UniProtKB/TrEMBL annotation:
<dbReference type="InterPro" id="IPR003593">
    <property type="entry name" value="AAA+_ATPase"/>
</dbReference>
<dbReference type="InterPro" id="IPR007831">
    <property type="entry name" value="T2SS_GspE_N"/>
</dbReference>
<keyword id="KW-0547">Nucleotide-binding</keyword>
<dbReference type="InterPro" id="IPR001482">
    <property type="entry name" value="T2SS/T4SS_dom"/>
</dbReference>
<dbReference type="InterPro" id="IPR027417">
    <property type="entry name" value="P-loop_NTPase"/>
</dbReference>
<protein>
    <submittedName>
        <fullName>Type II secretion system protein GspE</fullName>
    </submittedName>
</protein>
<keyword id="KW-0067">ATP-binding</keyword>
<dbReference type="GO" id="GO:0016887">
    <property type="term" value="F:ATP hydrolysis activity"/>
</dbReference>
<dbReference type="GO" id="GO:0005524">
    <property type="term" value="F:ATP binding"/>
</dbReference>
<dbReference type="GO" id="GO:0005886">
    <property type="term" value="C:plasma membrane"/>
</dbReference>
<dbReference type="Pfam" id="PF05157">
    <property type="entry name" value="MshEN"/>
</dbReference>
<feature type="domain" description="Bacterial type II secretion system protein E">
    <location>
        <begin position="321"/>
        <end position="335"/>
    </location>
</feature>
<comment type="similarity">
    <text>Belongs to the GSP E family.</text>
</comment>
<dbReference type="InterPro" id="IPR037257">
    <property type="entry name" value="T2SS_E_N_sf"/>
</dbReference>
<dbReference type="Pfam" id="PF00437">
    <property type="entry name" value="T2SSE"/>
</dbReference>
Amino acid sequence: MFEENLVENFDLKNQEVEEEAYKIFEENFIHEKKVFPYKITKREIFVAMLDVTDAQTKMKIKLKVKRRVVPVKMTEDDFYLLTNKYFGVGSGMLYQTTENVQLGREEFNLEDKEESAEIIKFVNRVILDAYKRGSTDIHMEPLKNDIILRYRIDGVLHNIQMPAAIKNVFAAVVSRIKIMADLDIAEKRLPQDGRIKIKVGEKEQDLRVSILPTINGEGIVIRILANQKSEMTLEKLGMETEILNKFRELIHKPNGIVLVTGPTGSGKTTTLFSAIKEINDYSKKIITIEDPVEYQLDGVSQIQVKPDIGLTFAQGLRAILRQDPDIILVGEIRDKETAEIAIRASLTGHLVFATLHTNDSVSAVTRLIDMGIEPYLITSSLIGVLAQRLVRVICPYCKTEKILDNGEVTYFGKGCDFCFETGYKGRTSIHELFLIDNYSKKDILNEKSNFEIKNNLKAKGWKDLKDDGMLKIEKGITTYEEILRVAW
């Protein structure tokens, strides 16, 4: 008889897994029976189980290892994380469903492949796994003799283990993704872009697909677009109170240009749409022009740029001005023509939001001048520039205190299963806000350098990205290494 009087719960966070325990069993058995042997001694084997009352499975394990079975209760999530970590994503595609994931074109099948059903399950599993881990991008990269799967989580790429057999059917995986994205499966020489709409539980999710032919085959990147409209608020962006209050004043101005700057993937669009969401009280006409449309907001007219038919940012802006808008959002100011129209709009009573690719807030002025915009037009229209970066947050599950030689206390993440051994979980923003006051206008009109403008701002107590980052280090939110990575 098995001793089951006191069945413990499996502690995924702290429990070490011994390879010799689970390697005794075939993968198929582990997936089929939903068990995971994780520790073995001379007399006992410890087995995490979904159903600890499954006497038949316990008997099979006992007969195989000739040891007493100690069952430990685990959850579906525990099993999912364990099998993904030790066998690879999609390793159990023959034995596991994709948990309520519905893909828009599921009626299509790869009829010319025997393993097509497995391919469908594998692709669904990868998408679900990436989604659950909070990934923004899925990378499938063919090498000469291998296939690499990587997820971008919190801005950093992580290698994800895959079943070795997938390299033999990768062409079918590419074809499956092309079918889902409504792309040409026969075209293997040219890049292709498409979109997929999926449903995870009750949540709809948009995916953007990019196929790129390389010398080793077609590489795939799937961008998981954030659709969490209800969660977009300025309070959740990580702004310090002083910056938040001043930024709020800017977005409630009746006219002028407000710019958000930073590199690709720094959260500029999220910030702008959080601002739009706050001021959208249905008493104002709000129109956006974007490339692509990432967030869809109720009560906002949104335009997708289509350069192939002549609908550029500049062309779209001209049309928007004939629609009697109060507030305009421009996805990105890329050229002089777009900048001039945006400035003209702000000078005729419109509030204009836009993004710009610069390293800091003050550099936005230099960028506009480099485009050919006169300084007097900048000082007449620009009212503020918010620069930002995304930094990783210390994982709350493995957050550890460290006392430095000088007695100061700092924090870091040791690494655990919840943060995939990185020490970080989630991201927040660091910011600097450049308000165009009378002093700054004089500096701009006198064509002072960025360095001089910053020094004048610093003399008045202005805080830049590094200062905001150091404040978040002091609060135990992030680490010095993260601030060094993004702001120095």
